[in-house]
Amino acid sequence: MEISLAGRSAIVTGGSKGLGLAIAQEYARSGADVAILARDQGALDEARALIQKDAKAKVLAISCDVSKAAPIQA
């Protein structure tokens, strides 16, 4: 089944590896712009390149520890 997410945006925490990365890739392939969040900027940069290679969506990679309020507000 093909679902179009064109014109939508998604935020994926833990988006640099594993299940989070797979979810972000699928959202992007379906047409959504994606923001991936994780703590390791290097892993995020690699994930961003991988997602953009498979899809034409906008991908924003943000280094952030979502267990703490201050980095989220920043």
The secondary structure category is alpha/beta
Number of helices: 3
Fraction of residues in helices? 40-55%
The arrangement of helices and strands along the chain is: EHEHEH
**Unreliable residue stretches:** none
Number of strands: 3
Overall average residue pLDDT: 93
The outline comes out as globular
Largest sheet: 3 strands, parallel
Distance between the termini: 38 Å
Biggest sheet strand line-up: 1-2-3
Strand content: 15-25%
**Rounded Rg:** 12 Å
Structure description:
- The chain has 3 helices and 3 strands.
- It has helices at residues 18-29, 41-54, 69-73, and strands spanning 9-13, 33-38, 59-63.
- Strands 1-2-3 form a 3-stranded parallel sheet, covered by helices on one side.
- Helix content is 42%, strand content 22%.
- The chain is an alpha/beta fold.
- Helix 1 runs parallel beside helix 2.
List the helices and strands and how they pair.
Blueprint: E1 9-13, H1 18-29, E2 33-38, H2 41-54, E3 59-63, H3 69-73
Parallel strand pairs: 1-2, 2-3
Helix pairs in contact: 1-2
In short:
This protein is an alpha/beta fold and 74 residues long. It has helices at residues 18-29, 41-54, 69-73; strands spanning 9-13, 33-38, 59-63. α2 links the parallel β2 and β3 (59-63).
